[in-house]
Amino acid sequence: MSVKHKVFANLYQDSVSLMQISAQINKLPGIEQASVVMGTETNLIQLRDAGLDNGCQAGPNDLIIAVRGEDEACDEALALAEQRLKSKPEESNSGGVRPPVLTSLEMAKETAEDANLALISVPGDYAAAEAIKALNLGMNVMLFSDNVSMAHEKQIKELAREKHLLVMGPDCGTAIVNGMPLGFANVVKRGAIGVVAASGTGLQEVSCRIDQLGAGISQALGTGGHDLHEEIGGISMLFGVDALANDPETQVIVLISKPPARPVAERILQQAQKAGKPVVVNFLGADAQEFHTSGITFVHTLADAAEVAVALLNQKSIPASVAQIAPADEKVLAAESVHLPAQRREIRGVFAGGTFCYEAQLLCKQQGFSASSNTPVKGNTQLSDIWHSQSNTIVDMGDDDFTNGRPHPMIDPTLRNQRIQEELSDPKTAVVLFDLVLGYGASLEPADELLEVIGQMREKLGAKNLPLLIAHVCGTEADPQVRSRQINNLRQAGVLVAGCNAQAALWASYVARQQAEK
């Protein structure tokens, strides 16, 4: 087994491109692990921790390809990655003359004077400085970069507030601005519902379900996960609420977050009351009765947020929460689980979306099933070994603990698939609960390798001994992966596919309860 690397000076690529290249070479035969990253101090530490540092000498402006595997496979992987990195766009039809390479925000602004938004995807050590440059140039900012300190985030957002500009992020993975999907966004219809979310996959779930219900999105603005912490004060969400309140195309506003700091939540809700438009709020896991806010509709789940927003838009009555199991679902689940051996009693959740993991934990806990997790909700247990489950376990495979030196599972689901295979092999597992997240930047065939794993396990264990698989597919028909196609592929493999993440979690809880009663 060899560890090899190559370093390129001053060869920058955006984070998503690097993750996609990492995912491609990770799949090569004979490769155990691969990573393509900039040579920042943080990334060098992560390479070392992942066993990919064989004396690599690189600076923060250098790009590193690091691989571990069979000797010839490592050479092939390095060559392929170099080819991808150095590939040039096709010549234009205007005499083969290329425009000058833009090496700074200032140059870009001179080229496109009307540009008013900068998408920043550089290593976290440098992201704050670039965001401040963009704000001083009069541009709003989508800060895709993570690993930005709270102190720097506060500095950036206070400057944005002074300049009456919006900062989405840090670690803002998705947004839709004027119909343009940014980051890991989905292809959704334009419409009259505006969303502000401190959660990437939460925003995706709500916007996709709104699309599925026949409505559309005016704007979908991410804030980054720390925005509603007391130290930041909800600066970006407050700006977003005000912007949507003044947007003539937005008729209904949806706000999404994990439980905010109490003073920040009150400030957000006071601002929302002044919007003059219906506002739907989903503070995941928070008790709505604590806030006593009139004129705002609080909902229990992400799917509820979409359902209620569409109902308000169409001036219809508020629908019942999706957080319940229909009698027809009970019959199907009971019939599917009747053959499970009595010792299979545990729920194993394997998620690519952090908010999906969070919501599933909340709902399973409300149904009486506490769980261990690498990102536990209040009342759940911190997983002692993130690589191995214990009792009921629900993990976020997109958390930094799993992605250090590896692509995110939405880009490369290999590690997620391996974890699902382990859970299927465990004789205590009753049900494996997982998500499939579609959209730009995500794997084009997210289910293919997983279906192979399921087929192998079915042959090994026999259909009657295999745990139930329950999935939720977040996406739309217009996404590159086509939601219905992914659902059909999963169902043909025997996977039960729920309509939303909340429903999937409730189904898993029902199966676990049936097993506990055997």
TrEMBL record:
- Domain (ATP-citrate synthase/succinyl-CoA ligase C-terminal): give its ranges: 350-510
Specify the taxonomic lineage: Bacteria, Pseudomonadati, Pseudomonadota, Gammaproteobacteria, Enterobacterales
- Where does the CoA-binding domain start and stop, copy by copy? 190-282
Report which superkingdom the organism of origin falls in: Bacteria
Q: Which InterPro entries does this one have?
A: CoA-bd, SUCC_ACL_C
- Native organism is Limnobaculum allomyrinae
NCBIfam families per record: PRK06091.1 (NF004760)
For this protein, the record's Pfam families field holds:
CoA_binding, Ligase_CoA
- In Swiss-Prot or TrEMBL terms, this protein is called Acyl-CoA synthetase FdrA
